[in-house]
TrEMBL record:
PANTHER family noted in UniProt: 4-HYDROXY-TETRAHYDRODIPICOLINATE REDUCTASE (PTHR20836:SF7), DIHYDRODIPICOLINATE REDUCTASE (PTHR20836)
Catalytic activity: (S)-2,3,4,5-tetrahydrodipicolinate + NADP(+) + H2O = (2S,4S)-4-hydroxy-2,3,4,5-tetrahydrodipicolinate + NADPH + H(+); (S)-2,3,4,5-tetrahydrodipicolinate + NAD(+) + H2O = (2S,4S)-4-hydroxy-2,3,4,5-tetrahydrodipicolinate + NADH + H(+)
Organism classification: Bacteria, Bacillati, Bacillota, Clostridia, Eubacteriales
Binding site for NADP(+): 36
Positions that bind (S)-2,3,4,5-tetrahydrodipicolinate: 143, 152-153
Pfam families recorded: DapB_C, DapB_N
Provenance organism: Crassaminicella thermophila
Protein name: 4-hydroxy-tetrahydrodipicolinate reductase
Length: 250
């Protein structure tokens, strides 16, 4: 499998380069990164996607949401399947992905950890069982260099929980102020940034006289890279369409 890595010189890009080096059936044929000379690579690196001359079976994007349009255009122009692993995407970005999936296979999820997707399904089942009798709060923790907040994973979990309710709950970010009490129609989402925390997500179901917590802790960035590699192997076998972790886990 020939792979192009967008964001190859970033933190997750370097993880992918290292992990793919151990994959006998995968080869990195090119990279895309605005800091193209930051590291010495065994493959050519281009500053912009449109400059890339190599052909690939899949492009894995672990860059920055500001590069979204260029990456998507390149994949559409070259009919290259896309594993979109960049976070901080807008609603318009997601709609663009959905539209583009009519022409190429696209895989996108808020988190490429298998464990995170398991706890998302657990939280959804818990919400369906507990209903409005339990208040739901999500706390996410990441390192002090993370630029988007809340995390894509927090949204992934919150949206999964909302699928359990006929009337969708409103997302409330933080709880500054003293004028309003909490209502049962809310899902609270709170972001913590500090140190070198890889990623930690806790879902709290607080009910009358009892509390349930579902938690996932990432111990290294490798779990996200391994998930993206599995997604790539899955995606190149698929027809045009939009896919996520649930499709792959099935």
């Amino acid at each position: 499998m020939k792979v192009i890595i967008s964001g190859c010189n970033g933190k997750m890009g370097r993880v992918l380069v290292r992990l793919i080096a151990n994959e006998k059936e995968m080869e990195i044929v090119a990279g895309i990164d605005k800091h193209k000379d930051k590291f010495e690579n065994t493959f050519p690196v281009y500053e912009k996607a449109c400059e890339c001359k190599e052909k690939a079976d899949v492009l894995i994007d672990f860059s920055h949401h500001s590069a979204f349009s260029d990456i998507l255009k390149y994949c559409l122009d070259t009919k290259t399947p896309l594993v979109m692993a960049t976070t901080g995407l807008t609603g318009e970005n997601l709609r663009s992905l959905m539209k583009a999936s009519n022409e190429i296979p696209i895989f996108q999820t808020g988190n490429y950890s298998l464990g995170v997707n398991v706890i998302t399904n657990l939280a959804k089942k818990a919400a369906a069982s507990l209903g409005d009798d339990f208040d739901i709060e999500i706390i996410e923790k990441h390192h002090n260099q993370k630029v988007d907040s809340p995390s894509g994973t927090a949204y992934l979990i919150a949206n999964g929980i909302n699928e359990a309710f006929e009337t969708k709950k409103e997302f409330v970010y933080g709880r500054y102020g003293k004028s309003d009490k909490r209502t049962s129609t809310e899902i609270g989402i709170h972001a913590i940034r500090g140190g070198t925390i890889i990623g930690e997500h806790t879902v709290i179901f607080a009910g009358p006289d009892e509390i349930i917590e579902i938690k996932h802790t990432a111990l290294s960035k490798d779990i996200f890279g391994l998930g993206a590699i599995k997604a790539s192997k899955f995606l190149i076998k698929q027809k045009n369409g939009f896919y996520n972790m649930n499709d792959m886990l099935k």
